[in-house]
Design goal:
By secondary structure, this protein is α+β, with helices and mostly antiparallel strands. It folds into 3 domains: about 130 residues, Lipocalin; about 140 residues, Heat Shock Protein 90, CATH 3.30.565; about 80 residues, no CATH class. Helix content is about 20%, strand content about 35%. The chain is built from 8 helices and 22 strands. It has an 8-stranded antiparallel barrel with strand order 1-2-3-4-5-6-7-10. Strands 11, 12, 13 and 14 form a 4-stranded antiparallel sheet that branches. The chain has a 4-stranded antiparallel sheet with strand order 15-16-17-18, with no helix packed on it. β15 and β16 form a beta hairpin. The protein is elongated and about 80 Å long.
C-alpha cells in the first residue's frame, strides 16, 4: 500500500513552479493526428501534464513537460514541437532524451546520441462537444469509454485450513471454490458449490460488478485523474471471502479511491444465506433500522453499557465511552464489533459468542444466533 496521490500533487506543484506554461490557445486541449504512421489522439492540461493513446489500442500514456520537451511515462518516448499555433502542432518523437546542448539544423534540439529512432508528429486541434479544454473532455475520453469484457480467473478451493469452515464438519462436507472476476478495473468473485443459494449469490455478485452506475463512476474517476495529473488512474478494488459456515457466507469488498491517501480506503461486507442466496446485514440481528448497505452503526444502548461498563477512559481518545460507529462482522467464535483503525490506538474491538450476544439481539437475531451455537 502507498499514498497514491501525494507524489502527483508534488509533481504538479513542481511543474507549475519550474516549467514554462503554454497559453491555453497554443497547447492546452485535445489534438488528433499522426505519430509516424500511427493515428493518435493527444490531450494537454494547463500545467505541464498530458496524455495520448494510439487509436488502435486505446491505452492512455502519460505525458509530462520537462524543460523544453515532453516525455512519456517511464521515459519510453520524448516529444518536442518545432511549430505551434492555435490549430496545428508539428514536432518530432524520439526514443532518446532531448539534449539542450546539441542544436539541430532546423534550430531545434536533437536527441542525445546518433542511434536514436525519430518519428514525425503532426496534430490538428479538436473541439470537444462538451467545451472542456483539458484531458477530462469528451473529445479525448469518449473513444475510451466502452464496456469492458468480463474476465474470469482459475477456479481454486477456499482454504479450509485458514478458514471458518475448519470449525464445522457440515461446512467441510460442502466445500466452496471461487474464482476472481475482473470487469475493467473492478474486481469481483464467482463461487462454486453444492449449496442451493450459490446461483443467486453469483447473480448478485455479477450484477454488482458490472453495474452501469459503477462503470460510469469508473469513467468519471479516470477523467478526473487524467485532468489532474495525466494518469488514467482508477480506484483500486478487491473482493474476497471473509466468512463461511454451513449457513452463511460473507464477502468483503475493498476500495482505495484514486487520488486519496489512507482516508480513501473503504471496506464493505455483504453476507448471504447459503440456502436461498439472499443478502443480509448482520447488524439487522440487533437493530431494526438497518439497511443492507449500511456498514457502521452505533451500539444499542444496552450493549454499549455492557461493553464499556469497566472501560478505562483515556484523555487522548474521544471514543472511550463507546459512542463511536462500529462494524459488525461474523467470525467462527460469534460476532465481532470493531471500529476502523485510525493509527491513534483508540479504536475498540470486541468479540462476542452467540450466547453473550443473545440478550442484545432482536427476536429474529436470536433465531440466527442459535444457528451459530
Amino acid at each position: 500500500m502507498y499514498t497514491r496521490f501525494i507524489p502527483y500533487i508534488l509533481l504538479a506543484l513542481l511543474t507549475n513552479l519550474a516549467l514554462p506554461v503554454f497559453a491555453d490557445d497554443e497547447l492546452t486541449g485535445v489534438w488528433q493526428g499522426t505519430l509516424g504512421k500511427s493515428n493518435i489522439r493527444v490531450c494537454f492540461n494547463e500545467y505541464g501534464t498530458g496524455s495520448y493513446y494510439y487509436q488502435r489500442y486505446l491505452t492512455p500514456i502519460r505525458l509530462e513537460q520537462v524543460d523544453n520537451h515532453w516525455q512519456e511515462d517511464k521515459q519510453t518516448g520524448f516529444w518536442q514541437f518545432d511549430s505551434i499555433n492555435e490549430q496545428q502542432l508539428v514536432g518530432l518523437w524520439s526514443n532518446q532524451e532531448w539534449s539542450k546542448t546539441e542544436p539541430s539544423k532546423d534550430n531545434g534540439t536533437s536527441p542525445k546520441g546518433q542511434q536514436g529512432k525519430s518519428l514525425a508528429i503532426i496534430l490538428e486541434r479538436q473541439i470537444s462537444p462538451d467545451s472542456i479544454n483539458d484531458c477530462s473532455s469528451d473529445a479525448y475520453n469518449l473513444p475510451l469509454e466502452t464496456a469492458p469484457k468480463l474476465k474470469r480467473g482459475k477456479w481454486q478451493p477456499f482454504d479450509n485450513a485458514d478458514s471458518q469452515q475448519a470449525n464445522s464438519n457440515k461446512a467441510n462436507a460442502n466445500p466452496i471454490s471461487y474464482r476472481q472476476l475482473s470487469y475493467g478495473t473492478e474486481l469481483g468473485l464467482e463461487l462454486k458449490g453444492k449449496q442451493t443459494g450459490i446461483p443467486a449469490i453469483n447473480q448478485w455478485l455479477k450484477q454488482k460488478l458490472t453495474s452501469e452506475q459503477l462503470l460510469a463512476e469508473t469513467f468519471e474517476t479516470r477523467r478526473d485523474m487524467l485532468a489532474r495529473v495525466g494518469h488514467a488512474i482508477a480506484d483500486e478494488t478487491g473482493a474476497e471471502i471473509d466468512f463461511i459456515n454451513q449457513h452463511w457466507l460473507s464477502v468483503r469488498f475493498y476500495r482505495w479511491a484514486a487520488g486519496y491517501g489512507a482516508g480513501g480506503i473503504s471496506r464493505t461486507y455483504t453476507s448471504f444465506n447459503l440456502s436461498d442466496g439472499k443478502p443480509f446485514n448482520p447488524w439487522q440481528w440487533f437493530r431494526d433500522d438497518v439497511a443492507l448497505d449500511e456498514m457502521q452503526h452505533q451500539l444499542p444502548d444496552a450493549l454499549r453499557e455492557k461493553l464499556f461498563a469497566d472501560m478505562q477512559v483515556y484523555e487522548d481518545c474521544d471514543n472511550s465511552d463507546g459512542s463511536g460507529y462500529f462494524y459488525l462482522t461474523l467470525t467462527p467464535k460469534g460476532i465481532e464489533l470493531w471500529e476502523t483503525p485510525n493509527g491513534r490506538g483508540c479504536e475498540n474491538e470486541f468479540t462476542l459468542s452467540p450466547t453473550d450476544a443473545m440478550p442484545f439481539a432482536t427476536e429474529f437475531g436470536k433465531s440466527q444466533l442459535k444457528l451459530m451455537e
